[in-house]
Every structure is written in structure tokens, then in C-alpha cells.
Design brief:
This protein has 206 residues and is of the alpha/beta class. It has one domain (20-197): Rossmann fold (3-Layer(aba) Sandwich). The protein is 32% helix and 20% strand. It contains six helices and six strands, in the order αβααββαβαβαβ. Strands 3-2-1-4-5-6 form a six-stranded parallel sheet. Helix 5 (137-154) packs parallel to helix 6 (178-191). It is globular and about 45 Å long. The protein starts with a helix and ends in a 9-residue tail after the last strand.
Length: 206
């Protein structure tokens, strides 16, 4: 038993980059498309390159994928339907797709998907940090980060959760002011104990 725990302590921990909803239906075209979200594409690609083919790093990419009968579409306009271009990763991430774990989600929270929950249960003692980027700040980012930190706290896991502020964005609409809802999302995440940083490996966001 002592040897087992010694091995666990010596095992290399990994940092996991989580890229949320960088799909064409939010970045390029469709009912939920917003040109402002494309502003974070370059920074996300730069971060992805730092994680590719590193033994101590891993990448998860969530894709929003719905059917016409998806419950979420009672609240949001039709978007990212299965089999359409909107549900595809943006072209800038395609070269790295094979090096990622790609999970599809049918709600605003990738945390509750069966594949991610299975991954987390299997790897929770091998991870020391989750780094979160993508869109949208106040919806899919917050709805992933907050349940994740709650899970970590519930099981007393030694895992940090970090959101990279210059690599997240939300949309702008008549009923949804970009700046207002971005700030609201950031405040909610901070209140729940999630670390906000200005950029990857950068200073804290104040």
C-alpha cells in the first residue's frame, strides 16, 4: 500500500487546457454568430500551441452540437445543428484537432456531458490545473467553470481552475450587452473561487 501511494505522489501531474465552443456557429456564421468572438481566436491558437504534444499537458475541446429537438433551443435561437458547418471547430483549430479530446455538448455546460464526467473521474488525481478559454464568458464558460470548482471542492481535490481573460469573450445583442454580461460572468466565477488571469501564465486579473 505504501508503494502504491508513493507511486501516486511521484506520477507527473498534468495541466489541462479546455477550449469551449470555438465553433463556426459562434465565430463565423449563424444565428448565434458574433464577430467580436473572433477577436480571441489568435490568442487561443497561441495557447493551444503551448499544449500540443507535451507530456504534462492535455487539451479538451467542447463543441456545441444540437438537434432540432434540443431542449436548449427553446431558450436560444437555433444554432450549431448536428451535421452542419456551425457545429465544426473553427478552421484555425482544425490542424490541432487530432491532438485534442473533442467532446460534444447539448447544453450550455460541458461539465455535465457523459464523456467529460467519465474523463474527470478517471483523471482527477492526475491533474493539477484546468485552464479555460473560449466563449461565451457568462454562459458556457461560467457554466463549466463553476460546476468544476464545486466538484473539486466537494472531493477536496488539489486542482486549480484558471480562466484566461484575454482568451474568452461573449456576444453582443440588444438584450445582452457584451461588457455588462462579461463583467457579470467574471464576477460570478471569481466569487466561486476561480482564478482569473489577464493572459496565460500572466498576472491575476483585477
Amino acid at each position: 500500500m505504501k508503494k502504491f501511494y508513493k507511486k501516486m505522489r511521484l506520477k507527473k501531474m498534468k495541466e489541462v487546457l479546455v477550449v469551449i465552443d470555438m465553433v463556426k456557429g459562434f465565430v463565423q456564421e449563424g444565428n448565434m454568430y458574433d464577430e467580436g468572438i473572433n477577436n480571441i481566436t489568435e490568442e487561443i491558437v497561441n495557447i493551444v500551441k503551448k499544449f500540443i504534444n507535451k507530456d504534462d499537458k492535455e487539451i479538451i475541446a467542447f463543441k456545441d452540437v444540437h438537434t432540432e429537438s434540443s431542449k436548449e433551443l427553446e431558450v436560444f435561437p437555433e444554432h450549431c445543428l448536428e451535421g452542419t458547418i456551425e457545429a465544426e471547430l473553427i478552421d484555425q483549430l482544425i490542424p490541432y484537432e487530432k491532438a485534442m479530446r473533442v467532446f460534444e455538448k447539448n447544453s450550455t455546460s460541458g461539465f455535465v456531458t457523459k464523456k467529460f464526467m467519465k474523463y474527470l473521474r478517471k483523471n482527477k488525481y492526475k491533474i493539477n490545473k484546468f485552464v479555460i478559454v473560449g466563449c461565451c464568458t457568462d454562459i458556457c464558460i461560467a457554466n463549466f467553470a463553476i460546476p468544476l470548482i464545486n466538484y473539486i471542492n466537494e472531493y477536496n481535490l488539489d486542482i486549480d481552475v484558471e480562466v484566461v481573460v484575454n482568451a474568452i469573450e461573449t456576444y453582443d445583442a440588444e438584450y445582452h450587452n457584451r461588457e455588462e454580461y462579461s463583467n457579470l460572468g467574471l464576477k460570478m466565477m471569481r466569487l466561486n473561487g476561480i482564478s482569473l488571469v489577464k493572459k496565460y501564465n500572466g498576472d491575476k486579473y483585477e
